[in-house]
Design brief:
The structure holds 3 protein chains of 3 kinds. By secondary structure, chain A is mostly helical. Chain A is built from 13 helices and no strands. The termini of chain A are close together. Chain B is 70% helix and 1% strand. The longest helix of chain B is centred in the C-terminal third of the chain and has 40 residues. The relative contact order of chain B is 0.15. Chain C has one domain: Rossmann fold (3-Layer(aba) Sandwich), CATH 3.40.50. Chain C has 11 helices and 12 strands. In chain C, β4 and β5 form a beta hairpin. Chain C is globular and about 70 Å long. Classes of the chains: A mainly alpha, B mainly alpha, C alpha/beta. Chains in contact: A-B, A-C, B-C.
Chain lengths: 325, 315, 328
Amino acid sequence: MGSGNYLLRKFAFALLTIFVVVIINFVLFRILPGDPVRAVIGRNVKISAEVQQSLREQFGLDKPVFPDQFLMTIRQWASGNLGVSWSLRRPVAEILISKLWNTLLLIGLGQILSIFFGVLLGLLAGWKRKTALDAGALTFSLIAWATPTFWLGIILLAAGSTWLGLPTGGILSPQNVGKPLHTVLPDLAVHLILPTLTLTILYLGEYMLIMRSSIVETLGEDYILTAKAKGLNQWQILWRHALKNAMLPIVTIIALNLGFTVSGAIYIETVFSYDGLGKLFQTALTKQDYPLLQGAFLLLAVSVILANMLADILYTILDPRVKAS
Amino acid sequence: MEAWQQLRRNFRELWQSFRGNRMGVIGLGLVISALIVAILAPWLTPYSPQQVMRDENGRGLTFAPPAVHPPLGTDDGGHDVWAQLVFGARISLTVGFLAGFIAMFVGSFLGILAGYFGGWLDNLLMRITDVLLVIPDLPLMLVLVATIRQMQLKISPITVLILVIGLLYWTSTARLVRSQVLSIKERQFVARARAIGAGHAHIIRKHILPQVMPLIVANTVLILSTAILIESGLAFLGLGDPTKPSWGTMLNFAFDRNAISNGAWWFYLPPGLAIVWVSLGCVLLGNVLEEMLNPRLSGHHLEGEAHIIKPGEQQ
Amino acid sequence: MSESTPLLSVRHLSTFFELSGNVKAYALEDVSFDVYPYQTLGLVGESGCGKSTTLMSILRLLPPNAHISGQVLFKGVDLLALSEEEMRAYRWKEIALIFQSAMNALNPVMRVDEQILEAILLHRLLPREQAWQRVQELLDLVGIAPQRGRQYPFQFSGGMRQRAMIAMALACSPSLLFADEPTTALDVMIQAQVLELLKNIQKRLGLAIVLVTHDLGVVAELCDQVVVLYGGKVAEYGSVDAIYNSPQHPYTQKLLEAFPDLHRPTASLASIPGTPPRLTDLPSGCRFEPRCFARLERCRHEPPALREVGEKHYAACHLLEEKENLLE
């Protein structure tokens, strides 16, 4: 089996998963009570019987649910047509794209910071096992794991706005909305502090735990003893022999964690009124805006699945064993 | 019943070494104290969570700090926070525990079937867990719960939460149990039992189950903490039952009704601390149990140098 | 250095491990032996008798719960008196080590040639260009096509990995090579090849080898001197001829009985009834007493001392003293 085969398998798996998500989305949409036309155009819009009939035909609702409606829906989704939001009266795809960058900025910053500090702390904790540093790091990560994301956000929001005068929410101060991006960067940064901090604290603990156990396991391997017998000092062993081996499992974990990161974004954007996909998801939920809810679900799920596939590809590049076996 | 007796002995031994583990005892203490509070709720407060507190002039006591209305003040509607907290424990723990147990049953059942029978069943199950693992769980649950509610079935919101959490979080248990069953199946006595004509149900009940039991217990404790955290999150996003507020619902109310800008810390701190209390307890307990069942390799090659005893040095 | 001065003199080497609950495991006690240039010394015994611990104690590669005492004189320098940093300069440059399982002893995500190169560059023996040259020569020496050095360990067969390990051990031209069961993990055919390679290399490069093995056939084929360890102590020590032809210690005799045919070097050690003592719970007298077929009353309480039984041939057994007394 070459690496081409491996990649092909990963690709097939991603396709399968996306297919499952599409089916879930389709089925959920269809089992909603009431006329599907209503589900598309909204509950309280008055339309005549003829318009309704022409819409039925336009959406293929006079045809059987499977395969005609299903295939049609897939075709629409694939072409980027996710329907129209009931509450915002705009195409769902358009709304999603307008919020996407804000969320990517938040998740990206949080991930980069938590991975960096988590891996670093985990490395130190595992290397200096059973020291005060290790015990402190372990305790921290357990408490971080047991803390609900949104509650930590609430605490930091209350503390940050009361004592540090940080903004209580949003992405920009009202007077800065609409100005060119480079002129409002400091304002943006100030607004990002608390949400990013919340995300970083929560995910840092997890990365730290994983890195810690990975480095402990790696440092117990025979080749580390070989390196020591060769006369390398601790730093040389850590840097040249342990780090790469210990980091490999982290790559997969980071990808799998993206799903949790999305959950985190929903909570944190809600708490900090941060104008991204997560907040949008929560709004759609409270307004029972189903086209928006399902469009957002589709986008989030497909992004996470694709990110996982990318991580698998990255893994093959990093680990020679996968590449050649 | 030999294997079951062995199991009972194992549990006794486990308990012996468990008692010496500080982290584990703390975890158990946290969980049990929360359970006691939930059970004794009506005796711990003179008020009901719905009752509106009034001052001597008959005006509603809204956002009264603990100093004015001990022990934990009142919320925006003048309800006693402590009463909500202890009654909320009942809801949070019920949802957490029931969802956790559903996940455990489904996961163990499927894990044992997949591990024991193997073949296409195993393949199918593993693919399903793979798929569930990459689909982001919170969005999926939110969409599911929202749709089920919209269908106006006659199920209480709390039951919906229990079912959705329970039926989505069985995958890790299933994987764990499966791999354990696979390794048990390799061992001698299963082959021997097979050879003397024991049926599958008999082998599973008498030989497999007693051996995976400790692992299932440890894993269930960890699942419990996940279930409690997820419940609080869904309730915070407004999917709880407003008439039966859990800790998460309390936080939803506190957040929506501006407890933060009103400085009503007594409204938003206690429910969160309660959630941390229980889930931390479960995590500590579960980690210690897992470590005891499955002691990981300890020690590595960079922990330091051997001690060289110089001539004349005392040993 | 003349052939009569030892390259390595181990004197009264003792190692114990501090375990949890204040328990001490006495892994080595009062072990002494000499290794001469160009010679091979075999360390034999059942597993858990302290063979590997001896090597690791000398190289000071044991974990921090290990406590080592005694003297390890290498070219006249006591290795146990050096600082950790000074000790690092000796590792691999002077004393290299081959492990039992080369699969695990090589870094899985580093190219084989880079792992060899690393040792040469670390000890600053050659500039980079020439060091690469040397890596190619080393691979060639152990019978690996130099271009295969660009591969990773998992792409090698078991025998090739052990050859690569040997090439790596020779990288700094050490004067002493420790080989810890170098062939145990390999299948029979490959075992013979690797042993042949070791023998050739010793002849060509003139190094001294300490070979840890439980395979007496290998000892007979490769070794000049033999140390028989039991329960962390030296049971018998002498030349390979002396040990094979007139074994003095009951344990050595049993070992040789259990391994009847020296011409079938591939047969492994058959078992002696009983198990080696637990290191946390050693017998107060002779450590072999519970399993010994010829035990005396005093063996239970009094540990026997090592006594000279022939030219440079030592054994630790009360029977020998009794015999001597009878003769007198």
